[in-house]
Amino acid sequence: MSEASIQVGLPCAYPLLCQWIGIVLAVAFVAGLIAIIYGVLKDKKRHEMKREQRRQQRAQRKKHR
């Protein structure tokens, strides 16, 4: 029974290569999440700037009336 081992995941002929593939996939996943969060925050900031510009334009139109 000492030779029997429980294997989790897919069998891999080159364990070091599989380890690096796993690391690369994890890094890619984290980078994707960061890119999504960055995009959402950037879009939110741009939306806020446009809202402020519209508010200022409305204030100027009321001033000129």
Q: SSE layout and pairings?
A:
Blueprint: H1 15-64
Tell me about this structure.
The chain is mainly alpha-helical and 65 residues long. 77% of the residues lie in helices and 0% in strands. It has one helix and no strands. The radius of gyration is 27 Å and the shape is rod-shaped. The N and C termini lie far apart (91 Å). 0% of the residues are buried. The mean pLDDT is 86.
Characteristic terms for this protein:
single chain; 65 residues; mainly alpha; 0% strand
Low-confidence blocks of residues = none
Number of separate strands: 0
Number of helices: 1
Order of helices and strands: H
Decide which structural class fits the backbone. mainly alpha
Rg, please? 27 Å
Strand content: under 5%
Helix content: over 70%
* General form: rod-shaped
Question: Gist?
Answer:
The protein has one helix spanning 15-64. The protein has 65 residues and is mainly alpha-helical.
